[in-house]
């Protein structure tokens, strides 16, 4: 570039350059100024030097789910379990403190409210439970909870879960390898699509929704840039298509005007239709929430449990023995299907699930914002600051759980819990808490237990990539989808 073209460039772009200069030169000065002017009782920490980004990249750097990651470890060591930083474009308080996390969850809609980054409302809309606040959240959540009380406690629901496990596992007998995450996705989507919309793998709508969901999930964790071809724009379209399919199912049912008499046979759409105070948009949004909640989290969680078991043969042996006992106790009576009483006998399975939730950290943190000044343990947090309770920060805290990085299901045994790990359960919040406690927590545990029952009784497996372990991206996932080799085991061998 000659001197003249450079001069012309500078002249034409003078306003752009001024903005750049202001950002690069004045932002650090402004940040320094703000840091020195801060109310003295803010938690310790810094707001970083990078405009807008602050510490976002280090905060989001992927790490094993069984570790807190470099960013948290470094800041906890330097400032303690509650510190300030700058992430997602906002001054933020990060908490890895069990008491403060519980305080945050219990004060939802009083001192704090949900505050997810722009791509969540951008894709899911303002009616999603994740971003709805106050009375709107209460009303929509009420309608959803109805589904859990009417539908998920019946024997039909247990049968339906077991049918889906058997359907997914049937072809495994003829396979040598599997991408395990794909299999668990087929399973959880099969369960939720039937419960929500009465759709099965034989229905075209089932396949279309599943296909769109994969695109949709990628956008939820992308930058909110709505330009053709971006993951975000594709996710918005996928969301429209899923809602359009749901809308046509909704209209068919309204057209038929049929009302199911047996509550146990109503799907979620029927339950919502019976609520005549919900608008069509609200119904579509609730359906999306339930499909989303029921699909991704539980499928990656089941894969995580199976990965932990692969690495801990002693835990796998004890689990297998428990399920053999359950099967033996049923004897030759009946059709051999699982009953609720069988589920209640799976105590070690429940400990395995709890331990995998603690080490797996499916949801590493949730997003909140202070709507009133917060006073806690001598700190003051001003209105408008983001507050992130980090669940993994507590689940992997050595002062809460001894050897926290070790997968040890026995730590949950009642007698041990009362002693050494007495205080260990306080900050155990894999499903969050308070007014937003995950309504699907029991369903997720049930699906996992039934899946494990048939897996450990019928198959042996081994990971094909040793390093493919559950990672926090910060959403939980496997880089390679957890490929495994698999073999049926004949009943006589155990
Ligand atoms: C291992 C599996 C699961 C984990 C770890 C998990 C975790 C969570 C967490 C931490 C939240 C709170 C979000 C917040 O406070 O901002 C949540 C909310 C939610 N979950 Fe789950 N979840 C799981 C499975 C499920 C299942 C199976 C369903 C549905 C069948 C479900 C449906 C929902 C819904 C609808 C919400 C929003 C609740 C509200 O805002 O009132 N989840 N989940």
Automatic annotation (TrEMBL):
Tell me the first and last residues of the signal peptide.
none
Q: Which domain of life is it from?
A: Eukaryota
Q: Which cofactor does it need?
A: heme
One GO term of the biological process aspect = sterol metabolic process
The record ties this protein, via Pfam families, to: p450
Query: Which residues does the record give as heme binding sites?
Result: 438
Alphabetical UniProt keywords: Heme, Iron, Metal-binding
Q: Which residues form a coiled coil?
A: none
Which Gene3D superfamilies would you find in this protein's record? Cytochrome P450 (1.10.630.10)
Under Gene Ontology molecular function, one entry of this record is: monooxygenase activity
Q: Output this protein's name.
A: Cytochrome P450 724B1
Source organism: Cinnamomum micranthum f. kanehirae
């Amino acid at each position: 570039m000659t001197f003249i073209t450079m001069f012309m460039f500078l002249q034409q772009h003078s306003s752009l350059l001024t903005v750049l200069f202001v950002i690069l030169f004045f932002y650090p000065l402004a940040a320094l100024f703000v840091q020195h002017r801060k109310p003295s009782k803010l938690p310790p920490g810094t707001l970083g030097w990078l405009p807008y980004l602050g510490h976002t990249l280090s905060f989001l750097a992927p790490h094993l789910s069984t570790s807190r990651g470099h960013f948290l470890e470094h800041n906890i060591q330097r400032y303690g379990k509650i510190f300030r930083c700058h992430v997602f474009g906002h001054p933020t308080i990060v908490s890895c403190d069990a008491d403060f996390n519980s305080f945050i969850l219990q004060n939802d809609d009083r001192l704090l409210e949900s505050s997810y980054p722009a791509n969540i409302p951008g894709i899911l809309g303002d009616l999603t439970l994740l971003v709805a606040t106050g009375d709107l959240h209460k009303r929509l959540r009420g309608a959803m909870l109805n589904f859990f009380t009417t539908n998920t406690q019946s024997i039909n629901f247990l049968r339906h879960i077991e049918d889906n496990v058997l359907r997914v596992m049937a072809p495994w007998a003829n396979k040598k390898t599997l991408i395990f995450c794909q299999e668990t996705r087929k399973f959880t989507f099969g369960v939720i699509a039937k419960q929500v919309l009465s759709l099965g793998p034989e229905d075209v709508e089932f396949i279309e929704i599943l296909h769109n969901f994969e695109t949709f999930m990628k956008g939820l964790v992308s930058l909110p840039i709505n330009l053709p071809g971006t993951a975000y724009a594709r996710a918005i379209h996928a969301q429209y298509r899923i809602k359009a399919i749901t809308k046509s199912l909704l209209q068919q049912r309204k057209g038929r005007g049929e009302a199911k008499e047996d509550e146990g046979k109503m799907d979620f759409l029927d339950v919502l239709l019976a609520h005549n105070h919900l608008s069509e948009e609200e119904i579509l949004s609730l359906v999306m929430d339930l499909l989303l909640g029921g699909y991704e989290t539980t499928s990656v969680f089941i894969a995580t449990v199976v990965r932990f078991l692969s690495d801990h043969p002693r835990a796998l042996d004890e689990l297998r023995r428990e399920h053999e006992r359950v099967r033996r106790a049923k004897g030759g009576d009946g059709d051999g299907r699982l009953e609720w009483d069988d589920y209640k006998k799976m105590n070690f399975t429940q400990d395995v699930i709890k331990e995998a939730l603690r080490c797996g950290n499916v949801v590493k943190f949730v997003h909140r914002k202070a709507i009133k000044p917060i006073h806690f343990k001598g700190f003051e947090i001003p209105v408008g600051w983001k507050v992130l309770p980090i669940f993994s920060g507590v689940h992997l805290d050595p002062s809460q759980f001894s050897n926290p990085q070790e997968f040890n299901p026995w730590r949950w045994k009642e007698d041990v819990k009362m002693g050494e790990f007495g205080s260990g359960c306080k900050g155990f919040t894999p499903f969050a808490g308070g007014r937003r406690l995950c309504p699907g927590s029991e369903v997720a545990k049930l699906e996992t237990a039934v899946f494990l029952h048939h897996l450990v009784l019928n198959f042996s497996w081994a990971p094909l990539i040793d390093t493919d372990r559950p990672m926090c991206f910060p959403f939980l996932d496997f880089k390679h989808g957890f490929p495994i080799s698999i073999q049926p085991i004949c009943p006589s061998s155990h």
